[in-house]
Amino acid sequence: xxxxxxxxxxxxxxxxxxxxxxxxxxxxxxxxxxxxxxxxxxxxxxxxxxxxxxxxxxxxxxxxxxxxxxxxxxxxxxxxxxxxxxxxxxxxxxxxxxxxxxxxxxxxxxxxxxxxx
Length: 117
Prior knowledge:
This protein is mainly α. It has helices spanning 7-16, 21-28, 47-56, 65-82, 93-100. Helix 1 crosses helix 4, helix 2 packs antiparallel against helix 3 and helix 3 (47-56) packs across helix 4 (65-82). The longest helix has 18 residues, at 65-82. Residues 112-117 have low confidence and may be disordered.
């Protein structure tokens, strides 16, 4: 069953998730990503990280209610961690890695978000 998604959430999700699906998939397969890196490549990362990957691979019209919930939680968490300023910043390694597992690389300039997913 598909879910309605408002323009604001769609845009916010794609603003805070500044990694492409390929970048996120590659990141989740590294030892530095932590949880679930020893599994099969398509099972690497946490359930939530894999959910972000699934959302990135879908068209807006194919999103489910679970997808919308993941999108909302990722936007809320990344926004709370970053505040209103999305200028590239290194921060602590654990902090950066945690955000990268949600598809947000705090070192990546916001303009690179225009890349195709």
